[in-house]
What we know:
Shape: elongated
Structural class: alpha+beta
Number of domains: 2
Strand content: 15-25%
Radius of gyration: 34 Å
Largest sheet: 4 strands, mixed
Order of helices and strands: HEEEHHHHHHHHHHEEEEEEEH
Mean pLDDT: 86
Distance between the termini: 80 Å
CATH topology of the largest domain: Immunoglobulin-like
Amino acid sequence: MKMKSRIRAVFLFAGALAILLPARLAAQSTGRIEFNARVSPTGGQPEPVRQLTFYLLRKSLEDIRAEALQLAPAPDMDKFIDALAVSPELKEWMKKHRSVQLSGGDFTKSIAPSEIMNVPEFFKAYMSRNAAFKGVGFPEPKFKEKDREANPEKYKQEKDQYLAAIQKFVAAMPESVEGIDIDLNDIDPYSKWDALVHKQRRLQESHALELAQERYLVAQSDTDLDGDGSFAGVAPGNYWIGMLGSEAISGDVHLHWDYPVTVRRGETARVELSNVNASRPSIEAQNSTN
Length: 290
């Protein structure tokens, strides 16, 4: 009976080793990440990022977004411009300046006198805004419509002189360009372009989040009330700690992270996430989504 009991004990011990040894070896062959996340409002003290989900990814979220861009390319501005019902000269101006915005002070300041003269829409708007200044310094035409056919050479010469005088006036009085965007409001395509860009960005972000979760997700962890979280049993390698579709918010500050971390066999990597190493510190993140 004693022999049988000893044999039985040996088998039980061997069985326990068979169960515990692989688990111990597995623990020794992997690593662990412990992190704490805090966010500081402007002029305030750091606060724990409580009960938010953090993700461990095998690829930087920035690189995942670049990959998603291939699935949903950015809108083609040239094609958008080509489809507009405006003059060829205005289309050329938009392509040259890489802008479809025809409003605001930055726009009016960017227009050169020669562009006022050469783009029909700009010239018409400029003349409309400055009609009231005729007789008080604004050039007045000397050419007469009757000379268009009766004396075309004279007509052309005097009209060219008039246009040259206007361009000279524009150069001397750049403030006279202010306000012409009001007359361009009906043809300003910026709101349509902006809506198209934002729609495409939302689609790109959706693709990026899908890729992150379906192809590159290793683990996820919810922070506790102290802002602490961890990832256990992580194979050695390079990873990124990030947030998907959420932000850490404190006052006027909105943060998310895409922070690189290296895991080594049998070791614990400790990470402090803060405003300093956030992907988009401060209010910029909030403004970019509006």
